[in-house]
Design goal:
The chain is mainly alpha-helical. The protein has a single domain, classed as LemA-like domain (de novo design (two linked rop proteins)). It has six helices and no strands. The termini are far apart. InterPro entries: LemA-like_dom_sf, MamQ_LemA. Keywords: Membrane, Transmembrane, Transmembrane helix.
């Protein structure tokens, strides 16, 4: 009978540890999936913006055909955005896209007829909406990454979660904050 109490203590301890590991694993899986979903949302919005860019270029080209360098920069930034793999590359591509959009809107300011064009105004509105959605998606993604990284780093999780295949994720940060400190001006 004396051996029953230590055995029960060990069984209860093993059960508590097992439940803790099970709950931790499941919460990490949930956070990991949430971060993947958030990244997918970002890529959808970046693709949407990239799809709007050729229409915007065509609308402006008719009025400012001599601004070839601006159009080339926008096209290059669009391609870079579409090819970005992961948050670091997407952040760098985001800097280039913001600079390119600023330059195309600067060109557009010089053409009052373009500013009155219904097609151009609609494209602007869609672009502003898309930019807002990109910002919201970035916040959601970075919030998920923060939760996941925190859960991975806290003790005692840090002792075993890497062995389960979980690793910290990158935040979607812009490498040059000055490039996006001010969004492209789209009001004329």
């Amino acid at each position: 009978m004396e051996w029953l109490i230590p055995v029960l203590i060990v069984v209860v301890l093993a059960l508590v540890v097992g439940i803790y590991l099970w709950a931790t694993y499941n919460s990490l899986v949930t956070l990991n999936v949430r971060v993947d979903e958030a990244w997918s949302d970002i890529t959808v919005q970046l693709k949407r913006r990239a799809d709007l860019i050729p229409n915007l270029i065509e609308a402006v080209k008719g009025y400012a055909s001599h601004e070839k360098a601006v159009f080339e920069n926008v096209t290059k930034a669009r391609a870079e955005t579409l090819q970005a793999q992961g948050p670091a590359e997407a952040g760098a591509a985001e800097n280039h896209m913001q600079q390119a959009l600023k330059s195309i809107f600067a060109v557009a300011e010089a053409y009052p007829q373009l500013q009155a064009s219904q097609n151009f105004l609609q494209l602007q509105a869609e672009l502003v909406d898309t930019e807002d959605k990109i910002q919201a998606s970035r916040r959601f993604y970075n919030g998920g990454v923060r939760e996941l990284n925190t859960k991975i780093k806290v003790f005692p999780n840090t002792l075993f979660v890497r062995g389960l295949g979980f690793h910290e994720r990158e935040f979607f940060e812009v490498t040059e904050p000055a490039a996006i400190a001010e969004p492209p001006r789209v009001q004329f």
